[in-house]
Here is the input.
Amino acid sequence: MAEPTSKKRKTEDTPAVPVVYRCEYLIPNRTRTCGMQRKQDNKYCSHHMIEGQSERVPCPLDPKHTVWKQDLSRHLKKCPSLGKDLHDPWYSLNINHKLSNELCAQTSPSQTQLGDTEEQLLDEYLPLIREAGEQFTPLRLISSSHEGLSKRLSEKEHQKHPIQQSSLAGNLKTKGLLGPDNFYIEFGCGKAELSRFLNLCILEEHKSTNSTSTNSYGFGLIDRSVNRMKNDPKITKETTIFNAQNQSSLHPLHPQVKRTRIDIKDLDLDNFLDGCKCENVVGISKHLCGVATDMTLRSLFNSSVIETQSLNGLMIAMCCRHICDYDLLLPFSKEYLAAKGFNKPSFKVLQKVVSWAVSSIPDSSTGIASQSSLSSAEKTKLGVMARRLIDESRVYALRKMLPSNYTSEIFWYVDQNITLENVCLCVKRN
Here is the structure.
């Protein structure tokens, strides 16, 4: 028998660990350097190369980003900021900074001095927030869903956003605001996910109602940013597929889709809707920030949709009250807050405290003496109270300013374990 040949062990050199060169730019107001990679021969990464007096320069169209100097002319032809100065017909600079027939709320003179420190303001106004908050009855939790999004819910591992979208769709249905006879305007639409999934719900509804298609059905998409991977084409594509699959039994639907890149403060809503043949307008949004919510309400009052009764309703999931702007609140919102003891100087207290509603604040985390006795739970409770004050001021203003056949309310549209920003503002034409 032949001797078994001994196998030679294959020896491999341990691969060398690649050297990673990190940018040496010291970030202002932080005790660390930039974590981006740099080339071996450079001191800074490409983003901070300008700090090293190299050949990277700010973009003339938008100084927030930089480009290589030798590539500047080519970059200017394709920069996303190109064309910002080429405005659509519905652009009107700062049109929604004022109301067309603004009624100035009669508020008492300010008693708060601008020289008051943050500590003094908190000492003075935290008791007012607590007093007002204790008078509020808890909001109703109206968590809903729609079978049109059941497939999306089953496919998604992370359920947070689908649950919210499904609840908003379900609540729109309950309020009679879901159907192909509406033109939906999504304010702060981003990629237009909410509009796309509302369209899927409407297609599902159409199977049972088989309503006649109207020319007014569609989606107006409002956002000031450049968004990649937009859902606009999917609205049309999914509707076309639906029509083909049901052509023998259902009336076809043909939603209009109209997107514009514009800040809500500059939006002339009447001009935007011109040509859309809108019989019923429904405003929608998921997590519209504080100042954008107030600007949206102003854009509605600055248009003819309320006077002509073409505003069918409004459903906005609100967020970020800490970036509200007192000057852009509706006049009667200011009146409501004044009755609770808050004016323009003291509004900054509300802006600070509302952030406590969604911030996990350790008990020991405080830089202000007057807060040192407050626990994390107490700060959260005060934050929710401050947020409720701002939300109730909006409801108060809408009830004052809208015709009597409109109802306005706020409610929780999902549980707070889904999102801490779970308050929805709803308006319905009766």
Observations:
- The longest strand covers residues 281-288.
- The chain is about 30% helix and 10% strand.
- The two ends are 99 Å apart (CA to CA).
